[in-house]
Amino acid sequence: MAGATPDWTRHVEAAVLGGADAIEIGLPFSDPMIDGAVIQEASQRSLERGTTLDSVCEELESLSTEIPLIAMTYYNLFLHYGLERAAGRLRRAGFSGAIVPDLPLEEAGEWRQACDACDVATIYLVAPSTPAARAHEIATRTQGFVYAAARMAVTGAASDEGDGPRVVATVRQASDVPVYVGIGIGTPQQAARAAAYADGVIVGSALVKLVLDGASTAEIERFVGSFRTAID
Amino acid sequence: MKNDVMGTPDEHGRFGDFGGRFVPEALVPACLELEEAFRDAWSDPSFVAEYRLVLQQFAGRPTPVTPLPRLSERLGLKLYAKREDLAHTGSHKINNVIGQTLLTQRMGKSRVIAETGAGQHGVATATAAARLGLSCTVFMGEVDTERQELNVFRMELLGAQVVTVTSGSRTLKDAVNEALRDWVTCVADTHYCIGSVMGPHPFPWMVREFQSIIGSEASQQLNDLGVGVPDVVVACVGGGSNAAGVFAGFANEKTRLIGVEAAGGAAVRSGSPGVLHGMRSLLLQDEFGQIEEAHSISAGLDYPGIGPEHAYLSGMHRAEYYAVADDEVIGALSLLSETEGIIPALETAHAVAWIEREAGGLLPHGSSVLLNLSGRGDKDVAQVRAILKGQA
Q1: Cβ count near B390 (within 10 Å)
Q2: pTM for this structure?
Q3: Which residues of chain B fall short of a pLDDT of 50?
C-alpha cells in the first residue's frame, strides 16, 4: 500500500531484493469494499498521510527497478482524475499494468481504452463464482495475466486452500494467458502449494501487515525471500 | 401502469449516465442471478399478488393520505400527507423488504444481510426475515448504534444479529462497505437486502419498483379525495427510496417532484459524478476522488451519495433537489407535531422543513402539495429531547 508509511518506496526496493517478480502497489481509497482489515487499515493510514495518485507517482519516479509495477485501486480514483490522464500518469511513473477490482468486464470499456492508449495493461479478475463461459471471456480479454481469486472472500489471511485450483483450471481451458492466484495466501507454504498449480502467486495483506507492524527493510526482504525460496 | 419517465433502466442498468454495476467480479454472478430472479418474479402475477397480500395483511397497507388542514392554513398551501409512518415498523422501508425477502425465499436463499443508518431499514429487514424464518444480520455504523440504541435492541428482539461497524466514518456508508464484504463471502446462501435505491444494478430499479406502491396508492387516494393530480410532491432523500417510490406515481404527470436532502449530505446539491457501492451517481467527494463523510442530524440521511435514478432525474430537470439545515429540521418536526398531531422521523422532517421554508416562495401559495411522510419520529424522540433541552 503506497504511502502507508513514510519509507514505503524502500519497502518496494526490499521486496525486489527479496526476489519478487512484480510488485502490486495499492493506491489508497476511502472505501475499499473488497479489502479486509489489513488493507483497510493501511489505506486509512496512507490517506491520513495525504497520499494521492500524484504523490505516489512522484515518489516512484525516484525508484529504479526493472521489474513490473502493477497499480491496484478502486475506479473512482481514476474516474475523478480523468481516465486517460490517469493511465498516462501511471505509465510515466513506471506502472505497466493496473487492477481495478470494482470494474468488472461490462464496465471496463472506457478504462481499457484509456489504458490501451498509454500502454498500461488492464488485468481482469476471475472469482470462484465466475461461470466457466464468463471466465473464458475474461481470460481472452485480460492483458498480462488473469488475477484468479482463490476464494470468495475479501483480501486477507485464510487457512484453507480455497478454490484456487478449480479457478485456475477453468481459465486454462480457454487461454494460455498466465494465471496468478491471490486472496488468502499469507505463508510460504500456502504460496508453494499455489505455485504448483498456478503461474504466479500474489501476496498482499500478509506483507502489508508486516509493514504496518513496523518491519525494517531487512525483515521485508527476508519475508519476500522466504516466499521466493518456497516457490522455487 | 406503464411509466415512461421513471422506466426500466437499459440492459447495463443505466438511467442515462448513471447506475451500472461496478462490483467485484465475485459479485457479478449474484447480481445477474438477482436481476433474472426479479424480472421473473415481478412479471409473475402470483408473486405480485403475494407481495401485495403481505403488505395488506402484515404491513397495514394501504396507508392513508391525510389532509393537513391546520398546517395548510398556517402556510397558505393545500397539504396532504402520504402516511408511510403508519406502515408496520414505522416507515416505508417495509415495502421494499417484504419484496426482497419474498424474492430471497423464491431464490432458495436462507439468509439476508442489510445495512442500516437510522435503524429503520435494519428493523424492517429483521421483521420481514423473522416472518419468513430467514437468518438475518444487520450492519450498522458505531456512530449510529449509539444514537439509535433502541433500534439495535429492537432488531435483536426480532432475532437479528447486529454487527457494529467501526471502520471509516462509522456511519451508513461504512455499513454498506461491510455488508458488501460479507456478501462476497456468503453470497451462495445470502441475499443482500439493500435498503435504498442505490448499489449495483438491479437494486436501484428493483427497490424503486417495490416502493412505487407508495406513489400508485397516493395517486389513487388523491383522486378519491377530489384533489386530483397534486401540483407538487415533496420527499426527503438520503439514498432516495421513499422519494423514488412516491415520484413513480406522478412522474408522468405535470406534478413538480421535489427531493429534500440534508445540507451535510447533499449529493445532488454539492456532489459530483463518481463511482461508489456499485453505482455511478452523484457523490460527495474531495478533489482526489476520496469519498467524503456526510454529516446530518438524521442517521438515515448520512449518506454521501444518492440513488442513480435521482441523479438522472436531476440531470434531466424532471425532479428538483434542495437541501435544508439541521436547525430548520428540528423546528419543522415541532411544527408538524403541534399543528397536526404527527411526530415525523427526523428524515421526514427535512421535507417538512423545506415546505415550511418555501411556502410562498418556491412553493406558491395555494399549491396542492403531497408530503411523503416516510417515517414516524418515535425512534428520534430521545435525540430531539436532548437537542431541545440543550437549546433551552
Answers
A1: 7
A2: 0.97
A3: 1-2
- Asked if the structure places residue B300 within a domain, the reply is yes
**What is the tens place of the pLDDT at every residue in A122-166?**
999 999 999 999 999 999 999 999 999 999 999 998 888 799 999
The per-residue pLDDT for B91 is 96
Residues of chain B contacting A182 with CB distance shorter than 8 Å: none
> Does B364 lie in the same domain as B299?
yes
Q: Are B241 and B199 in contact (CB under 8 A)?
A: no
Q: Are B97 and B193 in contact (CB under 8 A)?
A: yes
Beta strands in A43-163 (DSSP E): 69-72, 95-99, 121-123, 125-126, 146-149
- Nearest chain B CA: its distance from A167 CA (Å): 12
For residue B222, CA distances in Å to A106, B226, B246, B371 come to: 43, 6, 13, 12
What per-residue confidence (pLDDT) applies to A158?
A: 85
Q: What is the ipTM of this complex?
A: 0.96
The segments of chain A whose pLDDT lies below 50 read none
On average, the pLDDT of chain A sits at: 96
Q: Which domain holds residue B316?
A: 60-91+212-391
The CATH class of A8-223 is alpha beta
- Burial degree of B100 (CB within 10 A; 0-12, 13-18, 19+): buried
- Do residue B181 and residue B40 come from a single domain? yes
> For residue A219, which amino acid is it?
E
Q: Please list every residue in chain B whose beta carbon sits closer than 8 Å to the beta carbon of residue A77.
A: 288-290
Q: Return the active site residues of A.
A: 24, 35
A50 interface with B at CB cutoff 8 Å: no
